[in-house]
Each structure stands twice: as C-alpha cells, then as structure tokens.
Amino acid sequence: MIAVVNSGGANISSVNFALKRLGAEVTFTNDPNIISNAQKVILPGVGTAATAMKRLKEFKLIDCIRNLTQPVLGICLGMQILFEHSQEADIDLLGVIPGKLKRFNESNCGIVPHMGWNKVQIITKSELLNQIPQNTYFYFVHSFFMGESQNTLGISNYGENFSAVISFNNFFGCQFHPERSGRYGAQILKNFLEI
Amino acid sequence: MLAKRIIPCLDVKNGRVVKGVQFRNHRDMGDICELAQRYADDGADELVFYDITASSEGRVVDKSWVNKVARLINIPFCVAGGIRTHNDAEKILNDGADKISINSPALERPELISDLAKTFGSQCVVVGVDSRREDGSYFVYQYTGDQRTTIKSRYSTSRWVSLVQKLGAGEIVLNCMNNDGMINGYDIVQLSSIRKILTIPLIASGGAGEMHHFQDVFNKCDVSGALAASVFHSDIFRISDLKNFLKQKKVEIRL
C-alpha cells in the first residue's frame, strides 16, 4: 500500500489520480500510524513551505516522516521540505537531506515563478530514472530551488542549474510534477512503485 | 530552457465542449474528457477550460467534469469562468485542477487575487485580462462573456496588470480583444509592451490563425505561452503539426 500524505491544502488530488492510473493501491492519509506502516510514502505539496510545515506539525507528522525507512518520494514542495532550511519566510524544514533552498532571482531569470516544461539532464543513474531519456521535458511550477549537490540525480537550468531530481538514503524527490508531466512523468511514478 | 507552451482553450457549456460565434449559436463539439484526452495526446502543454455556462440563472453551475478531467489527463489544466469566491476556487482545486483563472470578479474585488494567492499559492492563480485598444491606448473590459453586458473598466491595461502582479497572481492571460476572432495574428505591439512591465509569466490570447502567428508571438514578445481555440477546434492544423513547425523554426518546444 502506498500512503500519500495529506498535508492539507488544495490541489494535491492529482497525485492520487496519477497513481490510480498506474493501478496502485493508494491511501490518502494524515494518520502517522498508517504512514509509518506503508510500503512506500509519497509527500506531495503545493503552496508555501511555511503552511506545509505548520500542517505537518498540526498532524504530528514531523517526526513520523523524519523516521521513515521505506522509500519516500517528495514531489515539488514535498521535495523541498525534505531539506534543512528555506529562504522562504526564513523557516526550518524537515531536515532529512542536507541543503538550503534559495529563491529564483528576477534579475537573473526574468520571470518568476519557474512555470512550464523544462528539460532534465540526468547526471547520476538511479532506478527512479529508468527508461527516462536524457533531456526529457517535465512540468515545473516553483519559485524556490535547491542548487546542485552530491545528492542530485538530475539537473535543470533556469538562470542557473538546480536540482530537479534528488535522492538521499531512502528519500527521493522531484522538483517537477511527475503526475502532470505526460508519459515520462508517469514512468517516474511507475519506477518509484517498483523500487 | 523553459519550453514555450501551446495551450488550447475549450469552451464548456452545461458539461459539454461547445463552439460559438461571438458567444452565440453554440454548436456541440463533443465530450469534455474525450477532447481533453485528444489534445493532451496531440502534444498540448496545458489545457484551459472556459466554463461559459450562465450562472445568472440563480443556480450553482455543475462542475463535476473538473474531477473527471483530473482523473483522466496527465498534463496541467486551468479552469476559468464562474469563479467568484474563495470557496469556488477551493472546490475546483480540490477536484484536481492545477490552476484557476479569474477575470471580472478580480476587477470587482482585486483583493480576491491576494486572498487566493495567499491560501493556494501564486502558482495556481491566473488572471485573465480582456484588453481593447482605443485611440492608441489600451483599456481593460469587464463582463466580456456577453456583448450586452460588456463594459469598460476603470483601468488602463498597464495599470491593471501591474496591480494584478503586485497582488500575487502567478500568471496573466492577456486577451487582445481587437484581434480576437480575426485570425490575423496576435497583438505583437501590445503583448511586447505588457511583457516588459511584468516579471510573472504572460500568455498571449486572441488572433491565432496560422502557424507563423505562434512563431511571431514567441520570437517578438517573449511570452511564455500562446492560447488558441478555433484553429485547433476547426482542425485548421493540429497541435503536433504546429509544434513540429515551431521546432523547425528554432522555437524552444516540447515534442
């Protein structure tokens, strides 16, 4: 069973729908027991890091997520909050992966948010990226980003290089939305289900 | 580099896709899900559904199709039309839409933009702007869904889009009314000047009739995407053909 963390907020049902299209058995929940015992956990999220952290705290999910040992996939904001700190409102995050998030700079990128389809260059092989061709386009929507680090599997460029796909121990993350990234996005979710 | 987005817009009335001329004589074009899937398969980067079902009849407009589309397709989509309140927006986003687009209600109550952006994030708040050229200046029009109710708002286009951005919108769709339905190209002059005063994505709308119109608007205005309806609905050309054409012309496009 796959637990999709209901961290609150609108606009996260599309992850459930994408998993169901792949035939996965999905439970959408904020119950720490169910999440801890799931085979795999997906942490979706849109909105702001501050709101997401506040909700995880409310649902007593902070330690639950930190202590997960099964494969975990963070998507977009769900990936971002796996890191230590965000420039966004200067707040502390879950801190399971080293690194600090920065905001795209209008003077550098021209237009913020980074919204639309951008190419991902795979720099480290991973089972999460099986059958994904080099420089495939994925759908991004974000204003904050994690730079390139030793945990980066795929990079994308918007004014500067940033982490589009990451992994650290049992934690994986996509900055883009695989559930809205056409067939290759679906392939990434399928790969995660098969890890 | 970010690819330029090709965005078909589908008019929805009473749960069906329709096509009308000047918002009248609507002809049934088919099932929402079937058409959404067809455009997604043909390479659309995003879809916009504009619900033109009249809400003035004092009833709640049935938007159950939003959830059906969300379950079906794997590209982002935006819902426009009839979203007047925080609750309207929340319902549509919960049903699985990626973005909501507001137009006249934002002109009535600009604080609706900041309210939605704070709750749901700027990325899902799109503001549609209907702009008309008069004596060399551009003005925002309101209630453009029906010619009988259309009025000129108190805003010049440049003043309104600046305010919209300041209030936290994540994207602006600029519908250039003089070009709309004329199929002689996007309003390059207006789109260029508006692009220069914004730091959020701008989507061009109104006037597409031929493939090179898309090439022009991307090369000359640096817009993030181009929205079109009739060229796709009438099968003047297919999205996949358009995208191949643009790729050949060195426009950054996702194939």
Describe the structure in your own words:
The complex is a heterodimer of chains A (195) and B (255). Chain A has 195 residues and is of the alpha/beta class. Chain A contains 7 helices and 13 strands. In chain A, the strands form 2 sheets. Chain A has a 9-stranded mixed β-sheet. Chain A has a 4-stranded mixed β-sheet with strand order 6-5-7-10, with no helix packed on it. In chain A, a hairpin with a 2-residue loop joins strand 12 (161-168) and strand 13 (171-174). The longest helix of chain A is centred in the C-terminal third of the chain and has 13 residues, at 182-194. Chain A is globular and about 45 Å long. By secondary structure, chain B is α/β, with parallel strands linked by helices. Chain B has a single domain (5-248), classed as Aldolase class I (TIM Barrel, Alpha-Beta Barrel). Chain B is 34% helix and 28% strand. Chain B has an 8-stranded parallel beta barrel, surrounded by 6 helices. In chain B, helix 1 (32-41) runs parallel beside helix 2 and helix 7 (188-196) packs parallel to helix 8. Classes of the chains: A alpha/beta (195), B alpha/beta (255). Chain A binds chain B through residues 9-11, 13-14, 17-18, 20-21, 46-48, 106, 110-119, 137, 139, 141-143, 157-158, 177, 179-183, 185-186, and chain B through 1-3, 5, 40, 45, 70-71, 74-76, 89-90, 93-98, 119-124, 170-171, 198-201, 224-225, 254.
